[in-house]
Amino acid sequence: MTAHSQDVRQLFGRVAVLLGGSSSEREVSLDSGRNVLESLVAAGVDARPIDGVPALIKELQAGTVDRVFNILHGSRGGGEDGVLQGLLEAYGIPCTGSDVLGSALAMDKVRSKQVWQSLGLSTAEFCVLRPGEDLQEKAEALGYPLIVKPACEGSSVGISRVFKPEDLAAAVALAKRYPGELLLERLIVGDELTVGILGEQALPSIRIVPAGEYYDYHAKYVAEDTQYICPGLRQQDDAELGELALAAFRAVGCRGWGRVDVMRDRSGRNYLLEVNTAPGMTSHSLVPKAASQLGIDFSELCLRILRQTLAAVAAP
Hints:
By secondary structure, the chain is α+β, with helices and mostly antiparallel strands. It has twelve helices and 13 strands. The protein has three domains: 3-95, Rossmann fold (3-Layer(aba) Sandwich), CATH 3.40.50.20; 106-122 and 189-292, ATP-grasp fold, B domain (D-amino Acid Aminotransferase, Chain A, domain 1), CATH 3.30.470; 126-186, ATP-grasp fold, A domain (Dna Ligase, domain 1, 2-Layer Sandwich).
């Protein structure tokens, strides 16, 4: 073991790379987690994988974990809805990413959009579909085309684009496969962009250009022909988008690192979509692509994220 490796092991202690879990995004999390684990181990960190929250609880009870690199995705068995964060706060174990409040708000697309609206931050018009309400009436009030999505899922799970009334029922049936509220949102026609957040910094934006019509699950994690243009906008526009993304991130109480997804219409107006508090770290993932534009390679990115847990411990 080199002196550097020994210093790193002492600095971070025993690190649990929390991956997998039981959410709808399990496979993506496993892929992300493998990449993070390999990078941390290569850097000399005493890191090992733990699959899901129940397995982590056993390790916490045994006192074998000093900090957690959370790369679980999603809710209800994922690590982005605040449940994991509450557990770790109770044990006094620092964790990468946002705390209970930030995680819970960001995971809930309805509440995060309500916060943004209250602060005058631009987000697409939407309504919540609750049991017993007239589906067609709500959709017509919002206007076609629209998007139907589960309020608490990620990775484009359960999302449909609806252009005419006769397709609405099937879209709602798909979204209802997932727990929680359903969201109807006005479809913004334009460019899809994303902004990574690292500490107090907005990374260069990425404009996503799928080979197909939409940036769906296949385009995100399977296809090799999706284009990622970084920076996604000209300098001044990119700076303005970065400011909006940081404001949205802070508004819902997030911290550490994350990713803010945005639609930009043909007139150049930006609309906030959602915040991801444990973004993907796969070969197709966007935060590593943006960080690389600033000379931050994958290994350094993982270490910077992990170092944020030291600041969390030092905070009063």
